[in-house]
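4.2 Preliminary Data

To establish feasibility before requesting continued support, the project team ran the inverse folding procedure on a target of 479 residues. The structure was first converted into the token representation described in Section 3, and no sequence information of any kind was made available to the design step. The complete token record follows.
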């Protein structure tokens, strides 16, 4: 069944909640689709029903956005995994664009297809983890993924945890672990003291964020947690699960070992561009924004008519900048649909444009800290698995490059790297860097063409009762 919405919003993080609220409050017919059971996104992830979570700054900010959304009149479709996108410009050559088509799998498993005249993508980011020996051992989990365990499940990743990688999430996760009862064995921060010092001026513009960061550091100092600046994890070791982690200064030198039963590690965040790639929008490589990003105008329009991107999916700028970006995208959609005239749009966009710019300064400094560090890719050993879905090692990738693969789609065809359930979300960054080293840069290495499904879905849920005999056989072409 199809529903002609004015605006569909994909993703109910801070950007998506604000976009849907803005568009619905101004009279548009809006649907917001989110795969989680509650709105909030990664940063404002709501606790499961029945969990009592003491209010903190994140909880209050999330609740304010949720309350505005509930009052806005936007239709919320929670637990809806969006796996297919179509329509819009994806029509046969020469045909006029049609409404966007959105295929989703709701919790009851009965697939739905919706239609919307404009589509705002607010899908956020994926975590970047550059492979190292032992990274596939049980007990090694993503730094950002650890926040999901802690927030959505109330589960500790381990009793004694090493926290490693880059960016503010390191200290946020370590402080949360301490509060929740884990021991933090050590923090291995890739950033140097100088990098943090250079980020300070941007952070001073957001005293609230700075105060929070200082409180995390104070909690670590009080608990005697060793914080190793400019250090990288070189191996996770153990039989059947992680038992210890080896850490080394990035400049070389003696490695230290820390016993632990979990390693939370993350090397930054990568904008989720699967949907804009499906629509063949223009992209550019922006290392300090997290990687490939869609080309956006000041109002978050992409190169495809009536398609918009807000939040970290358009380049990592953090949670504080996301709501203003969502409002800008919604206002642009209403302008393009003719709901707002030029003057009303110019007036309405002024405040979110300023808010976005201000918040993005601190976000950009943090994104810079989380940008991909080439030395980690150089250090990947030949026998280390890069694509864990398909079991492809660095050595196999190098062989494919020797054999003539010159960009990401060819690498995928030669090795199956990125063809598994994660569709390259986990291995794509490391694999692309390996290609880039041979062909002269990430722009040349390109990215895997956007393909459906956006998320793994069971075939029977999408096709229903299906038999091979049901496949229509086209008549033979006339000779
Ligand atoms: C795993 C993870 C944990 C993070 N934890 C923190 C944290 O604790 N603190 C912090 O400051 N920052 C955190 N970040 C960074 C933070 O997400 C962003 O800075 C900020 O939330 C960006 O907001 P957003 O609205 O752009 O995206 P997000 O908040 O990421 O929201 C995107 C939403 O889109 C939904 N979505 C994506 N694809 C689909 C689909 N196909 N179908 C249906 N729904 C979909 C997701 O479920 C998600 O709710 C985390 C990032 C990640 C990846």
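Position-by-position output of the design step:
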């Amino acid at each position: 069944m199809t529903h002609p919405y004015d605006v569909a919003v994909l993703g109910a993080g801070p950007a998506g909640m604000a976009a849907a609220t803005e568009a619905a409050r101004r009279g548009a017919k809006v649907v917001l689709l989110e795969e989680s059971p509650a709105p909030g996104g990664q940063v404002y992830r709501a606790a499961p029903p029945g969990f009592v979570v003491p209010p903190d700054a994140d909880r209050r900010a999330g609740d304010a956005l949720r309350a505005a959304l509930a009052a806005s009149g936007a239709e919320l479709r929670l637990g809806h995994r969006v796996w297919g996108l179509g329509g819009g410009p994806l029509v046969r050559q020469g045909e006029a664009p049609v409404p966007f088509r959105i295929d989703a799998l709701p919790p009851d498993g009965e697939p739905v297809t919706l239609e919307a005249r404009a589509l705002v993508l607010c899908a956020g980011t994926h975590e970047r983890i550059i492979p190292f020996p032992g990274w596939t051992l049980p007990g090694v989990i993503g730094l950002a993924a650890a926040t999901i365990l802690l927030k959505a499940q109330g589960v500790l990743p381990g009793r004694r945890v090493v926290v490693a990688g880059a960016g503010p999430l390191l200290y946020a996760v370590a402080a949360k672990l301490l509060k929740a009862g884990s021991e933090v064995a050590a923090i291995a921060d890739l950033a140097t003291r100088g990098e943090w010092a250079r980020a300070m001026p941007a952070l001073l513009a957001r005293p609230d964020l700075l105060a929070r960061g200082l409180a995390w550091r104070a909690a670590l100092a009080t608990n005697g947690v060793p914080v190793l600046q400019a250090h990288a994890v070189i191996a996770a070791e153990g039989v059947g699960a992680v038992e210890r982690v080896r850490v080394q200064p990035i400049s070389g030198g003696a490695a230290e070992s820390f016993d632990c039963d979990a390693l939370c590690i993350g090397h930054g965040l990568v904008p989720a561009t699967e949907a804009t790639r499906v629509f063949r929008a223009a992209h550019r490589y922006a290392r300090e924004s997290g990687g490939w990003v869609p080309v956006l105008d000041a109002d978050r329009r992409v190169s495809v008519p009536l398609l918009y991107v807000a939040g970290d999916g358009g380049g990592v700028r953090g949670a504080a900048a996301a709501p203003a970006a969502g409002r800008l995208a919604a206002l642009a959609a209403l302008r393009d649909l003719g709901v707002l005239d030029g003057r009303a749009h110019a007036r309405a966009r002024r405040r979110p444009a300023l808010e976005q710019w201000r918040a993005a300064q601190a976000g950009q400094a943090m994104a810079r800290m989380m940008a991909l560090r080439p030395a980690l890719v150089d250090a990947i050993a030949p026998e280390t698995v890069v694509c864990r879905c398909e079991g492809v090692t660095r050595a196999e990738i190098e062989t494919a490059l020797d054999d003539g693969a010159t960009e990401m789609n060819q690498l995928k065809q030669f090795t199956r790297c990125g063809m598994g359930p994660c569709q390259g979300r986990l291995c794509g960054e490391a694999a692309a860097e390996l290609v880039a080293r041979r062909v002269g840069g990430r722009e040349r290495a390109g990215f895997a063409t956007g393909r459906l499904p956006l998320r793994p879905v069971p075939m029977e849920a999408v096709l229903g009762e299906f038999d091979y005999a049901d496949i229509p056989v086209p008549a033979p072409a006339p000779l």
